[in-house]
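User: My collaborator sent over this chain with a note saying "see what the structure looks like." That's all I know about it. Can you take a look?
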Amino acid sequence: MEGHFGSPQDIEWAISGDELYLLQARPMTALPEAVEWEPPVPGYWMRNFRLGEWLLALIEGGYLRGMRSAVGTAVPFRYAAINGWYYATLPEVSPRLLTRALLQSRGRMIPISWNALIRVNNDPVAADRAVLGRLADEWRTEILPRYRTLVVTAQERVQWATPAQLAGIVDEVGTAAGEYLFSLAMVGGSAWKMEAALAKFVRQHLADGLDSSYQALLRGLPGLVAGTPAHAVQSVDWYHPTLGELGFAGRDLDERNYRREIVAEREAAEEACRAILADRPELLVRFDALLEVAQRYATLREQQARDLTLGWPVLRHCASVRSSPKTG
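Assistant: Without extra context I'll predict from the sequence alone. Here is the result:
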């Protein structure tokens, strides 16, 4: 509309059937002033979540603690605040910094970095066996239970906490969320790389005989909890209410009939792929291994992402408590 009329437009629209209709368009009269800025150092920058300076620092600290625990060293990202928004870019990798990180990691950095960042793109099965499977087990048996226990304990402490203690609770929960985020980045973040490897295999060996997209193989997977948790958010900025506060908790956004349909589509796609590869046993073995690991990590990603904001209700409670703690 802007291109057609020559200026930004405030529009109203509707969808009827499969058609998109423009109902109204009028020039926007309250446009903000254009803002330009130069990054503090060269490189590509991306806007980070609107977490606010306090929580951002805590999450970064926890993220680096998780990195140090897994890799043996920590390489911090670079941040900048521009016009109230927080931006991040990759760490500055220099020979000196890289050498120091390698020495600090005592040999742990190379195998983890190689498997989690590079090998997973071409051989996800081997990367899973070498490193990623262990990191996934650590998330399931250590990081998630520890995060849950901390949140439960914090919820019990909030009502009787002093202002200083409330700030301490925010520090603890925010740091734990950052440690959890590192696990999500390493484990759940591998899912899209495995998906890309699966897509490449389908294009090379199955495209001619498969009617559906490779994405059908990754839909309707078991192991996911239906419904919306109370700690789910629309914005990771803890200023905004959780979906539980908005009254959406517990709702199953996927209708049962729709879920049954996509499960059936996935199972049919799996059978079709195996039928196409039936006379090529080596490729069939490769396909089954690749499919298993891609499906498992697609599920892991959703499971991990679901509980990233587990601590957000108690964080918001800490910020909203104004009365002095009761005594006696």
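A starting point for your reply to your collaborator: The beta strands are 9-16, 19-27, 46-47, 78-82, 85-89.
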